[in-house]
Design a protein that fits this description.
This protein is of the alpha/beta class. It has helices at about 45-55, 90-105, 115-120, 140-150, 175-185, and strands at about 30-35, 65-70, 75, 90, 125-130, 160-165, 190-195. α4 (about 140-150) packs parallel to α5 (about 175-185). The longest helix has 14 residues, at about 45-55.
Length: about 200
Amino acid sequence: GSGIRAPQSQGQGGGNVSFMGRSPPAQRVVYVIDSSSSMEGNDAIGFARAELMESINGLSKEQMFQVINYTLMPHVMKLRGDTKIQLYRADDFNRTLARRHVNTIVADSGTKHVPALSLALGLSPDVLFFLTDADNPRLTPSELYEIKHKLNKGGRTHIHTIKFGVGPDLLPVPDNFMRTLASENKGTYTYIDVEQLGTRSP
């Protein structure tokens, strides 16, 4: 196996979404992917894109989804030239367009996590998948508080975090904002060692 399986967690609403072996039930799914230049290291961005495609492929047409990649600014996926930000039904046509969109995501520029997370949570998803190398700036305790108590009030959205790091996951738990974000928002935390990606089995 690839060693990146994580436990399932319960979302709300019907339908399952699978991401790297996890299948929480969810009607509304938003993927938030860090596309800042640090994600170029060991091609973390390429791996994130591939996992994203696989997860989108597995959605059923009853489910709704959106992909937001971000640097200093969030970039929302807009299929067919829409002007408003919305969730799309995961039918064959939209999944094809989404995969095409995901293929165009490249790593560039700096990082600001909160605007993208805020935008994503504003869509009221059941499940949010947050992919980043967690490079600086880290989410501060006050930002984590704001996400839990204001942006994700009532814990509607389960936030699953996927961290791309180099080498073993040695950061002490209190310093790992990705762990905190997941545990405070009913999600799971997965760590991926990008140095191992080249050798991972299919």
